[in-house]
Amino acid sequence: MNRTDVTTALETALSSVLDRPVTGLEGGTRLFDDLHLDSTTMLEMLMELEDSLGLEVDPEELEADDFETVDTFTDFALTQLSGTQAA
Q1: Longest alpha-carbon distance in the chain
Q2: Which of 32, 65, 66, 87 has the fewest CB neighbours in a 10 Å radius?
Q3: CA quadruple 26, 62, 48, 45: dihedral positive or negative?
């Protein structure tokens, strides 16, 4: 799994959750400010990524900083995925 895979899965999940096409995400794209996500859509996005990537997220481990931009979320997802694969 690499950054491109996560970004592609993120675009797919966001397109589904927001019910509009989301493409061409860049690292600096802000999830809440630029894409207008809220806590509900963020949780829906995480559920979509659980299905598509096998991403397992412990709600206790969620930090607001992890969801600031596409890059920070990608870093978070890759860390979670590497932990899942090692377990």
Answers
A1: 35
A2: 87
A3: negative
Tokens found for residue 8: 């592609």
CB of 22 within 8 A of CB of 35? yes
> Is residue 52 classed exposed, middle or buried when 0-12, 13-18 and 19+ CB atoms within 10 A define those classes?
middle
Q: Under 8 Å CB-to-CB from 43, ≥6 apart: which residues? A: none
Query: For the segment 38-75, what is each residue's pLDDT rounded down to a tens digit?
Result: 989 999 999 999 999 999 887 777 888 999 999 999 99
Q: Give the per-residue pLDDT at 87.
A: 42
What confidence score (pLDDT) does residue 64 get? Answer: 87
pLDDT score at 1: 85
